[in-house]
Amino acid sequence: MTYKTILTCTDGETDGRGRMSAAIALSRRFDAHLSVVALGYEPDLPAYAYGEAPSLAMTQWYEESRKRAETLAEAAAERLEREGARGDAAPLVATYAGAGPAFGARARFSELVVLAGGDGQGGDGAELSEALLEGALFDGDAAVLLAPRELPEKVGSTTLIAWNDSREALRAVRHAMGFLSEAEKIEIVMIDPDEDMAASGEALALMLSRHDLPVELAPLPDEGLGASGALRRRAVEIGADLMVMGAYGRSRFRELILGGVTRDIIRDTPLPVLMAH
């Protein structure tokens, strides 16, 4: 498997973490077509405002958003041409609340979506970045690569698979085969595995070994770090330049209220992370 259609986005505001640069680098690596969605935002008006707000003002807001999106799309297209990347750029106007589903609809026919990972600092763009991620995963049913500020020289040469015996994790592994097929080392990490998880980890290792991939099993205790902390520590220990994991193994609402590995990783992404749901 390889990636021949890659999607990313730009909004001119939350694009400072290298999203476009990462997408261009990966499109070159896989000789892929890169599509860029240029986002312009309409204001989210409360329901009562629609009966009162002057139609002229609403039209003006939309036109300003449309022009901004078109300007961003032109700039993205110029950058693709300047850097010799094959691709296209198109505007998309949506409210902040509707940006995730609208972007997800564009992601449906892409094999890989590249978005910015969290820097652990939060900030104004964090919630929007999570909305775009969720749109790509749920509405687009796409695999998403979260990229840190600086992309490693070769993403996936040492890959950590965060295995928890879930459907989501298995889908992520299958979507990651374009990277795994070029890996020099693959480690299947299981945090405090029970018998079932350990057995499924062995089955996964066998499946990957049949592709002649250099795979190892690593059952590890969390040692009080929690699953996300233990995964981050192991990634540092082995020098991983890609983590593969399932996203939202439990509902988004439960992740929001109770926390979870997905939310921890997307808010602080020290290495490229490929996710699927």
Write the layout of secondary structure elements.
Layout: E1 5-10, H1 19-29, E2 33-42, H2 55-82, E3 87-95, H3 99-107, E4 112-116, H4 126-139, E5 144-147, E6 158-162, H5 167-175, H6 177-180, E7 185-191, H7 195-209, E8 215-220, H8 226-238, E9 242-246, H9 252-258, H10 261-267, E10 273-276
Parallel strand pairs: 1-2, 1-4, 2-3, 4-5, 6-7, 6-9, 7-8, 9-10
Antiparallel strand pairs: 5-10
What report would you give on this structure?
This protein is of the alpha/beta class and 277 residues long. It folds into two domains: 5-147, Rossmann fold; 158-276, HUPs (Rossmann fold, 3-Layer(aba) Sandwich). Helices cover 42% and strands 22% of the residues. It contains ten helices and ten strands. Helix 3 (99-107) packs across helix 4. Pfam families: Usp (PF00582). Belongs to the universal stress protein A family.
